[in-house]
Amino acid sequence: MTRVVVGPFNRVEGDLEVALEVEDGAVRSAQVSSPLYRGFETILEGKAALDALVIVPRVCGICSVSQSAAAAGALADLAGLAPPPNGLLATGLVQAAENLADHLTHFYLFFMPDFAREAYAARGWHPAALRRFQAMRGTAGAEVLGARARFLGIMGILAGKWPHTLALQPGGTSRPVDRAEKTQLVLALRTFRRFLERAFLGDALEAFAALGSASALDAWLDARGAGASDLALFLAIARDLGLARLGRAADAFMSYGAYPGTDGALLFPRGVFDGAPAPLDPEAIREDVSHAWLGDAPPRHPRQGETLPVPDKPGAYTWCKAPRLGGKPFEVGALARQVVAGHPLARDLVAQGGGNVLSRVVARALELCLVVPAMERWASALEPGEPFCARADPFRDGAGAGLTEAARGSLGHWVTLRDGAIDRYQIVAPTTWNFSPRDAEGRPGPLERALVGTPAGEGEAAVAVQHVVRSFDPCMVCTVH
After folding, report:
1. I need a labelling partner for 467 at 20 to 30 A (CA). Which of 81, 317, 388, 473 fits?
2. Does the pTM exceed 0.85?
3. SS3 label, residue 422
């Protein structure tokens, strides 16, 4: 058996290393390490409650809005605040804009360039992948960056700036929208839809969202061909390389639920799927630090969690904690959201081949197709002149939780105030779930399990590990606090 260390990874937010035990050309076990400690949980201790809204967006420059939403939600939960309808709609629009921009960036700039590598030069689709997705030279890069920039103009209207906006507040949003700005929102969404339907999809958003099975997805590709769109090219590549057989984890999925509506319902519901749908009990979450460079303690709920760095701890190999729900590791992300929501295509892909490289990418495509029409409805429902934010009284001592969905999955913030200041603050990010180390029982996290069996040799086999890692879209800077 040979030990191979892969990393540091490029095109990943933050630092990541993966140690592989390789036998007969395939991974037999994996240890995923987050080697950079950041410590935002400790930084927040002793600060005023509203300081969290300034500090936590700096956890990450990619998902800063999601961090803001989780912090605002935790303080709203503590204070018992309910945002007005406009505040809910504007928050949903801002967070959805960031999440969809993340999906777009992941597909075009992080994931697809791997298929332009020389290792695939003998494949028939390689010239098309090279022409479209080669880093710095492919035609897709400039096109998608322009579309993304125009789409993120929504942030300027609703949030003042991006990243690190202060517009998201416990009572809603601080940036009201007038009628002219509402028209700008509608036009920006219409422009983004045109890009998706022309370049990314080659079809109407609603048509792709209506696909109900893996066989329907195959028929969709067969009817168009690989040259019809960027997603069609990916699906042809995935079929040729067998990506539906690569990167399967434990097929246990969790979602905190995303995008609350003015009627109290969520666009994507909260829950878990572990062979069958079930409700989610956030009180069953525990963080295990057995293999983290953190002070030994029994598994604790994040509300009671502590962050005590021990960089020389024996047996540890990462700064990432190991969150577990009911003692089990769960995968989070777009696939988890769509499986929990019961989307028939996501459910059938998981029934056929589990959570794998193909199903994770298709789930992100589904969310682009499902969320843009929802954003169009939310923008149309905004009522200029009506309140966007409920006023918050001074925060009392107590505890609150903010549970939301970033692009990469379930994000939770837990805050405790004492004597008017933050006494305890804990963050469990999506990549903390997906890239967690083994727990005290030796159970691997989702990526560690997904890497087992992955080819790890020369040529094409050397790229397979990259595909599995990138299928989770890691954001390591959110993970290590």
Report:
1. 317
2. yes
3. strand
